[in-house]
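Collaboration report, partner site 2.

Our partner group contributed sequences for two proteins of shared interest, and the home lab folded both. The records are reproduced in the order in which they were received, starting with the first partner submission.
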Amino acid sequence: MKIKLKKKKLATAKYSLYIEYYKGKVIDKNGKQIHNREFEYLKEYLYIEPKNSSEKRENEETLLRAEQILSIRRAEYAQGKYGIKDRSKDKLLFITYYDKLKEERYESKGNYDNWDAAQNHLEDYIGKRKITFEDVDEDFVLGFKKFLNHKSRTKSNTPLSQNSKYTYYNKFKAALRQAFDDGYTRRNFATTVKGYAQGETSREYLTHEELQGLAKAKCKHQILKNAFLFSCLTGLRWSDINKLNWAEVRDHEEGSQLIFKQKKTAGQEYQYISDQARNLLGKRRKENDRVFQGLKYGAHFNAEILRWCMRAGITKHITFHSARHTHAVLLLENGADIYTVSKVLGHKEIRTTQVYAKIVDKKKKEAAYLIPEIEMDYEF
């Protein structure tokens, strides 16, 4: 079998790269001799006529990725045909192999994003080094763990949380396991270094009394105040609130409803909202207009949330995402069942929602000890 990298001209002024698997000639059912070919489209594209240095560089990087995928396919074929380890596998860049595994998860939005985020830290760790499978050993694996512990930073330049390290390192180990299964390494290095324990997630939220105080307190940015309170009443994430447009807000005689696609999971959601939540949106504008025009993500708005809380006498470390936690806890406290809350929040698994039920149970336990002890004699 011949395995070749080819390109197809598109109407978009680009070439689409694909791999052709040529298996020779066969006789079809009509007795005609035909070529037996199969194709694998790589979803990699080249500019036909790059206009600047940036497009030329992008072409070079794209072609390199495609050629390395071609090397993987040829190696896989050789290994299957001859039952030997193809030494060309040792020359493949680890990050190229990781990127291929990531792209295979493209349709799983949440999982893909975690693989992508882990790759960003992995690339920072590797830096300018050309790490091939020849270089992958226990020191390389342990080094990445040390990097996550001491050098990796979030977009806000803060150390990674325990759960972030747990997630990113698990993706790295999954790639190592797959590499061993595919014959790129002689050892399963995923088992050589102990991973991270998953941390107990701390979810700050507001009580109904605190939320009432926050609603009355002054916030420097009214759009931020309205968006935060809207999240408390609906449970929507900042990413979904930020992109919400008027076409996704449906007003009916019996009430209002949001029909939108979650940015994090890409799941289509149909969510009814209360009249109070609808009032926070204000007057309807053009269908394609953002509902919360002027809402921005950044250190300034995050700091204003804390200052706003302080004006309301709230000393908890509240972030915009705390509004989503607040919504979940208030629903459970007011009688909603865990399944309904899970659906409202758009969780795919109910165990994700169960952490909020634990918060409510803890509060019930604490409430049992709020009444001061009464002096009495116990007689039976």
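Second partner submission, folded after the first:
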Amino acid sequence: MAKLDEKIGFIGGGNMAFAIGSGLINREFVKTSQVLVSGPNIENLGRWRDLGIATTDDNYEVLDKADIIFICVKPHILTPMAAQLRNLHSPTLKDKDKLFVSVLAGVKLKTLEEKFSFVEGLKMIRTMPNTPMQIGEGITVYSPGSYVKQQDLEKLHLMLNSLGIAQQVPETMIDAVSGVAGCGPAFVYTIIEALADGGVKQGVPRQMAQQFAAQMLLGAAKMVLLTGKHPAVLRDEVCSPGGATIVGVHELEKGQLR
């Protein structure tokens, strides 16, 4: 049974939108019948349709039909997209009930509220999620706009927290968090690949090396979260005097990993 009754819309059906939408469905937070996704090229939305989700090439259809609308276009598309919606929109009583959620990196609430000022009583929330939301291990921070009510925040928090961790923060902190949590998965994937390559170089089969590298990173992350110890303390516990680990740490330092 779905935990949310509202219709969820995505304007833009790219990777971040898919991570959120598919994550909500996988967690049975919403039914596929509650979701509508728009994109300029309908053929690029095939993975949504594979899940049984309705798609359209009409952004205004999402604006008109959805109750919670995720803005998931690229930042440079925001202005023409919002202008198109402005030209098509006729104010209705439903406007004040709609909740808009932006995932656009670097686009501030002030800009978002200006672009969507044609929606009376606009309720806009700026977020920065990450793609591991797709498997329920994501991180999202969010900041509310002018007309957002506490019940709106609670509803969004419930949605996003079902996909990992969600935390309200001052908007001034969102860009900094983007570097840690939003971009972070790409940094970590690079490290996993490098560790696996090292294993392969030394004779470990590729699949095994990749699995071990990923599991090691998962275990190390849980050690930080569950023990509460500083990463430097945990690192020191692995480093024996004159051992292979401290030699590797030294190489990482020489390579300016941090």
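Feedback sent to the partner group on the second submission included the following. Residues 21 and 134 are 8 Å apart (CA to CA). The mean pLDDT is 94.
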